[in-house]
Automatic annotation (TrEMBL):
Any Pfam family matching the protein: GCV_T_C
Name of protein: Aminomethyltransferase
Primary location recorded for the protein, binned into one broad class: mitochondrion
Location of the GCVT N-terminal domain: 40-298
Species assigned in the record: Phaseolus vulgaris
Binding site for substrate: E234
Matches recorded under InterPro entries: GcvT, GcvT/YgfZ/DmdA, GcvT/YgfZ_C, GcvT_C, GCVT_N, TrmE/GcvT-like
Amino acid sequence: MRGGLWQLGQLVTRRLAHGDKKAVARRCFASEAELKKTVFHDFHVVHGGKMVPFAGWSMPIQYKDSIMDSTINCRQNGSLFDVSHMCGLSLKGKDAAPFLEKLVIADVAGLAPGTGTLTVFTNEKGGAIDDSVITKVTDDHIYLVVNAGCRDKDLAHIEEHMKAFKAKGGDVSWHIHDERSLLALQGPLAAPVLQHLTKEDLSKLYFGEFRVLDINGSQCFLTRTGYTGEDGFEISVPSEHGVDLAKAILEKSEGKIRLTGLGARDSLRLEAGLCLYGNDMEQHITPIEAGLTWAIGKRRRAEGGFLGADVILKQLEEGPSIRRVGFISSGPPPRSHSEIQDEGGKNIGEITSGGFSPCLKKNIAMGYVKSGLHKAGTKVKIIIRGKANEGVVTKMPFVPTKYYKPS
């Protein structure tokens, strides 16, 4: 799926408009029979979801509205996404936090119960195996969600290190939440609509916080987070209650919150300046290079203790050779792998994600350039189909974030 979901969404829109569903399946390198389906699959189809293969799953790329319209509606009203292809798991035991700290850059021990953070699983060279949102539910229970496309390698990585940790007497076990499904409710109406379905006062739940609570009659894991830059929630719900919860959310919103697919999810996260693993982060890119230095806890910077710490801490001290930055550009929208040149025509980097911003009505992109050429306002040229187009390094997020935090 390298190259971004935005491009796939445009291809799907064109192909389906001409009835060419076979071409879509060929483009995505999977047959329908091979794909896993979330509990919402039939619900998507009934509501006009255009299903495509993604990370081994049949997922909606869009619905009856366009990717442009659904992106704008998320920012103005709200969106409901099925993200059940992602993998939720729990680590339990008195050594759950110290075990996880061997694998990620976050200060897990320093998190207060009921709070979480974005983190990165690193390898021995300091590269990113995956990014993940982790939450300390209690001192001996850590809940985390990993990307669908990274599930197999992530679980194998965690299991390998867990066996070694337990062999030395460490107290940790895990449970993979395949019995639960995951919904992401995003946008300005997310909280007021969800408040109709729970007795918990959501105004007291801030960005990055977690609760186990009753929503629409079933026990859910609720995290105030998301992947759009908007206020919102990720809701882990027992799969047998998932469709009922989705229906209730849409009903309470009186049509203002719409089912939204992966196409708009990609444009929303790009506008928010958020990484897509496999495009903007990979195993050869460190958290420092990716602009995620803030995610390394202060204690972890002093102590290290995670895989690749020597490489990452050296970059912290000396600075990285490349940096992830944002761009505004003219001409066609930049795409993954588009070359970036300085004004003299010298190669200085590569685009990793790009597209047309539905909200800003201009081309936006992110990519990596050599350090020293990463400052906002630096003029560049972006090569698309052999032609140089004007671009400028721009601060991210492109669209201001609206995370719900204490005033």
